[in-house]
Write a structure and sequence with these properties.
165 residues; mainly alpha
Length: 165
């Protein structure tokens, strides 16, 4: 059985770059990750992804975040990675009006504080876990939260790269 990593390792360079860039919309980062192929295992891929992420600029971060909807909101197919986002936020109960209001308020407070959309690896987390993390992140300094934002983007990207087409 061919794994997602096997597929990534054997894809033509342009296709591999497009696949990696779809996981995290930072062309320079994607190029560095693709240039490291072939990867013997997922640990090597994760190490390369983290190494390339060490130099993410503010402009690259802004670009990457633009592809993600606010937590708890439906993705806009024209702007966001809608299929990924809907699946990743699947455990967030949108019918819970109180939770939805708390997430809206938290997103607004976060954006006012940090000037960027709140991002978290939502896969495997329910809405209350996401809200708890949002509240913790609001206590961070900008430097701490910028690092955490990049970490969350990486976690999302690595999960997306593990998916088979």
């Amino acid at each position: 059985m061919t794994t997602a990593l096997d597929h990534l390792n054997t894809m033509p360079e342009e296709a591999a770059r497009a696949r990696v860039e779809a996981a995290l919309d930072i062309p320079r980062w994607a190029q560095e990750v693709v240039a490291g192929r072939p990867y013997a295992d997922s640990h090597q891929l994760q190490t390369a992804a983290r190494t390339a992420a060490r130099t993410i600029t503010d402009a690259e971060l802004t670009r990457a975040l633009a592809r993600h909807p606010r937590i708890g909101e439906r993705a806009d197919a024209a702007r966001h990675d809608a299929a990924h986002s809907e699946r990743e936020q699947g455990r967030i109960d949108r019918s819970d009006e109180r939770l939805a209001e708390q997430l809206r308020d938290g997103n607004l407070a976060y954006e006012q504080r940090f000037g960027r959309v709140f991002i978290i690896r939502a896969a495997g987390r329910d809405g209350h876990e996401v809200l708890d993390q949002l509240e913790v992140r609001l206590t961070h300094t900008d430097e701490q939260d910028r690092a955490e934002t990049i970490e969350q983007l990486l976690q999302i990207a690595l999960l997306r790269l593990e998916e088979t087409d």
